[in-house]
Specification:
It is a single chain. The chain is an alpha/beta fold. The chain folds into two domains: 304 residues, Crotonobetainyl-coa:carnitine coa-transferase, domain 1 (Rossmann fold, 3-Layer(aba) Sandwich), CATH 3.40.50; 78 residues, formyl-coa transferase, domain 3. It is built from 19 helices and 15 strands. The strands form five sheets. The chain has a six-stranded parallel beta sheet with strand order 5-4-3-6-7-8, sandwiched between helices. Strands 9-10-11 form a three-stranded antiparallel beta sheet, with helices on one face. Strands 1-2 form a two-stranded antiparallel ribbon. Helix 2 links the parallel strand 3 and strand 4. About 9% of the residues have low confidence.
């Protein structure tokens, strides 16, 4: 994969600048990306983003790490994506308009800059050390033994910069017997017990058709990194944060599915009966499907009234939350038979009037045309400097009523290498050596 050309970078072509320039904690070096809202989004300017001025060195690939660091970038951090010569693996996954800029890569790498450093070379490692000197965070998802082979262990990095937050995003916690193993989403869905939940309900294990292990681990990692940065602000000292997919997804899965096994000795089997019920699925209507979840006593009373069976609210099996939980499959079976008697539109209108939570079954195309999302202008048109017109979904966050801006488009491979190294005071000769341009 060809890196972004030095000539184009020097000329300013195809760079993704929206923020102002400010001084950061780099010993006088200037930093781009002030993190001021409104830099490219049409929202009110003047609001400083939470992580504005925080420099993050991002040595992550695929989805787990890049999605975590994209969240930091959305919050205003200056994320510098440090890539090998072939680039992030996701650069070639999915449709693309230009080589190295595929759909999966574009989904989790906005608000970043890119530099190519071949860390097998001494000059490149020396440049990374200099970047570490002025960074607030160092984040990677390289296996522990591999990062140790390159010399960038937590101890070494924290010795060099005692104020840095070091994030090690691993497949498995390092000191356990699985430590150092490779891990991907499918494997973690299986090991964490998520795939087996389908066996309980449907008779065979299944994988959720979404990279939920990667993406949930990324959410966990980003919150841990932000918390560690708050600790750094309080103490003035850096620290090592380890976040692993396996332990993260086990913890996530067991929130409800530890169930009776949370007690010692156990007060029942593991597995939340409501979500494991074979009748917990989209309800078939006369002309399609919908999802409905009456949950409280008042919601179920409203449902039984709509169904023309108000007396069902007094059925001992369904009268209280506790009894419904014990008889959940019977409850859902009865509800499904009732919902099958009317059309989807009719039910949704009735449920809305009765304040019973319900919604349609949206395809991905339906989601794009959802009236609520469109009213919010959730899908934001964006003109990427090299990839042309795109749509980028909004984040779930708003700060004082303002969405987080797209300050930078997803970078081409190595697009900002010379810019980033010049910011830390490296000479043209040293930059050439670091980037392998000699």
């Amino acid at each position: 994969m060809r890196a972004f050309s030095a000539r184009k970078a020097r000329s300013g072509l195809a760079t993704h600048e929206w923020g102002a320039v400010e001084a950061g904690e780099t010993g006088g070096a200037t930093r781009s990306d002030s993190g001021v809202l409104g830099a490219g989004n049409g929202v009110t300017s003047g609001f400083q983003l939470p992580l504005s001025g925080v420099r993050v060195l991002d040595l992550t690939t695929f989805v787990f790490g890049p999605y975590a660091t994209q969240i930091l970038g959305d919050f205003g951090a200056d994320v510098i994506k440090v890539e090998p010569p072939d680039g992030d693996l996701t650069r070639v996954i999915g449709p693309s308009r230009n080589p190295g800029m595929s759909a999966i890569y574009l989904g989790c790498n906005r608000n970043k800059r890119s530099i190519v450093l071949d860390l097998k070379r001494e000059d490149a490692r020396a440049a990374l050390w200099r970047l570490i000197d002025g960074a607030e965070m160092f984040v990677h998802n390289i296996r522990p033994q591999k990062i140790a082979g390159l010399g960038f262990t937590p101890a070494a990095v924290l010795e060099r910069n005692p104020r840095i937050v070091y994030g090690g995003l691993h497949g498995y916690r390092e000191e356990g017997p699985y430590g150092g193993r490779p891990a991907y989403d499918d494997v973690i869905q299986g090991q964490s017990g998520i795939a087996a939940l389908f066996t309980e309900r449907d008779g065979a294990p299944q994988l959720v058709p979404s990279a939920i292990a990667d993406k949930n681990a990324a959410l966990i990692a980003s919150s841990g990194l932000a918390a560690a940065y708050v600790q750094r602000l309080r103490t003035g000292m850096g620290l090592y944060v380890e976040c692993s997919m396996f332990e993260g997804l086990v913890s996530y899965n067991l929130v409800e599915n530890q169930y009776g096994a949370i007690f010692s000795p156990s007060e029942g089997e593991a597995g939340y009966p409501r979500t494991l019920s074979p009748h917990r699925r989209p309800h078939q209507t006369l002309d399609g499907y919908l999802c409905m979840l009456a949950f409280t006593d008042s919601q179920w009373r409203a449902f039984w009234k709509l169904a023309g069976s108000p007396e069902a609210a007094d059925d001992p099996r369904f009268a209280t939350m506790a009894e419904r939980s014990r008889n959940i499959s019977a409850l859902y079976e009865v509800a499904s038979k009732i919902i099958a008697t009317r059309s989807t539109t009719e039910w949704l209108e009735l449920f809305e009037k009765a304040d019973v939570p319900a919604g349609p079954i949206n395809s991905l195309a339906d989601v794009r045309n959802d009236p609520h999302l469109n009213a919010l202008e959730f899908f934001r048109p964006f003109e990427h400097p090299t990839e042309g017109p795109m749509e980028i979904p909004d984040t779930p966050y708003r700060f004082d009523g303002q969405s987080l801006p797209v300050r930078r488009g997803q970078p081409c491979l190595g697009e900002h290498g010379r810019e980033v190294l010049a910011e830390i005071g490296m000479s043209e000769e040293d930059i050439d050596a670091a980037l392998g341009d000699t």
